[in-house]
Amino acid sequence: MNIHEYQAKALLKTYGVPISKGVPIMRPEDAEAAANELGGPVWVVKSQIHAGGRGKGKFKEADAGEQGGVRLARSVDEVKTFASQMLGKTLVTKQTGPAGKQVNRLYIEEGSAIDKEFYLSALVDRETGHVAFVVSTEGGMDIEEVAHSTPEKIVTLTVDPVTGVMPHHGRSVAKALKLTGDLAKQAASLVDQLYAAFVGMDMSMLEINPLIVTKDGNLRVLDAKVSFDSNALYRHPDLADLRDLTEEDEKEIEASKYDLAYIALDGTIGCMVNGAGLAMATLDIIKLYGEEPANFLDVGGGASEEKVTAAFKIITADPQVKGILVNIFGGIMKCDVIANGVIAAVKAVGLSVPLVVRLEGTNVEEGKKIIAESGLNVLPADDLDDAAQKIVAAVKGN
Ligand code: GDP
Ligand code: MN
């Protein structure tokens, strides 16, 4: 689960992390009060969307002004102008894709005088199973670009969960950022605070770009991007309230209600599969035969007829879907349950695209019989290869 920058900063503040004062707003008429509360003389008006690269982004609408999604304002009037220009408009950044994202919230922040910009992130290193910190002097830039062209400027260190953060971690970070004296001490306590926040809230990623040294010699977190491990969210009911559904794919929200694993993709073939491994294999074979999957939908091990129906409805509601492949290996999941679910869904929502069904495993004969006797226009398939070729041919023929 992702959250907005202003929410991430508020959480980090409770761990003592140095951040600027700021006020989130959702209506342009609240900009003046927010600006007055902060006092100025410089403010930053920041678009809140679940995507980075906002500063260099561009708005689609001409009346949103020339500048990007992060703007420096030098008067209350300017804060007001920017707020009314940006709210409700669509911001396109390197990370949003060409469709962009609508800006529904702004964060008005006290402006900082920047001396230096650094990069600092924390994530779970899958190889060691430890939390890793990634630091670089090249802040405010695209870190993938830095990793590509000057990898020696990126320093990674991991924290053993048994000992937690040790003094040497702080020293390593300070050294990597070429900080000495009081700033080195600040870096060490920042690493402590960020590690506590990361572990305490079960984050999967924390990215600060930039971390700055202010002109008056202090470290400050100027931007913060946080993702939480969804599997651990049950331990943090308060964090669930931070979810912004307007930032998420509608079909993914609907799927999560039924506990279905659904990921929207860019292609044309909707896939209903059980088990992540089979889902991966299905996506691969569709690509092998020259088409692209429209989604990844895993109904899981023991899905009920109701769940299968919900899954099928989500797939058919997507106008991108030009054909559907149901690929089930019945183990705990029974093929007759899948067949009944598919038929119930087709009866409820209709079927305007070709449908290929491949069933194998428990109760496969009953399942095939139910489909054959349903009178629906379903193309049966014998194995995965056959199924993939049939659905690709059907989609291409359209
Ligand atoms: P992003 O573009 O989505 O990564 O948004 P950021 O929050 O990182 O802001 C983009 C850039 O705006 C930063 O890299 C800074 O250079 C600049 N910026 C953000 N806040 C301030 C501020 O308080 N003062 C100054 N001078 N620049 C800022
Ligand atoms: Mn940034």
From TrEMBL:
Keyword Ligase: yes
UniProt pathway: Carbohydrate metabolism; tricarboxylic acid cycle; succinate from succinyl-CoA (ligase route): step 1/1
Catalytic activity reported: GTP + succinate + CoA = succinyl-CoA + GDP + phosphate; succinate + ATP + CoA = succinyl-CoA + ADP + phosphate
Top-rank taxon: Bacteria
Listed GO MF terms: succinate-CoA ligase (ADP-forming) activity; transferase activity
One Pfam family hit: ATP-grasp_2
Protein residues bound to substrate: 274, 331-333
Similarity-based family: Belongs to the succinate/malate CoA ligase beta subunit family.
Protein's recorded name: Succinate--CoA ligase [ADP-forming] subunit beta
Organism: Chelatococcus sambhunathii
